[in-house]
Design goal:
Transcriptional regulator, PadR-like family, WH_DNA-bd_sf, WH-like_DNA-bd_sf, elongated, 4 helices, Arc Repressor Mutant, subunit A, two-stranded antiparallel ribbon, alpha+beta, Tscrpt_reg_PadR_N
Length: 125
């Protein structure tokens, strides 16, 4: 059980926030190929079997944050219209992706084990 300030943690032991998870997923996708924002949303939805979908209100600020940190770079498909902005991962982004992928793996595995134990105990599955 996790400890915080010498006391038991009352928080569900998922140490990965939704924002951290979505940043990881964005970099994962952009490590494969270039995407634009709505494509990222649709791709995450498909890869997660339509169980969860990130909102545009989450994706676009994260894309701007990743771009301002030089982890991704963006360009307009038609610069005059500025309607579709594609993104690609940068060399710095690839290095950052490798670090957070390795860092978050243990948290994701812990969360998976916890859910499996809960499902087995409560639902006998």
């Amino acid at each position: 059980m996790s400890q915080y300030k010498g006391e038991r943690s009352r928080q569900f032991p998922s140490k990965l926030s939704t924002t951290q998870f979505v940043k990881l997923y964005i970099l994962h996708l952009l490590n494969e190929r270039s995407f634009y924002g709505n494509e990222i949303i649709d791709e995450i939805k498909v890869r997660l079997s339509h169980v969860w979908v990130p909102s545009p209100g989450m994706i676009y600020p994260l894309l701007r944050d990743l771009e301002s940190n030089d982890y991704i770079s963006g360009w307009w498909e038609e610069p005059d219209k500025r309607s579709i902005r594609y993104y690609r991962i940068t060399d710095e982004g690839i290095e950052h992706y490798k670090v957070i992928k390795r860092t978050y793996k243990a948290s994701l595995e812990d969360s998976l084990k916890l859910i499996q134990y809960i499902m087995q105990d409560i639902y006998q599955r």
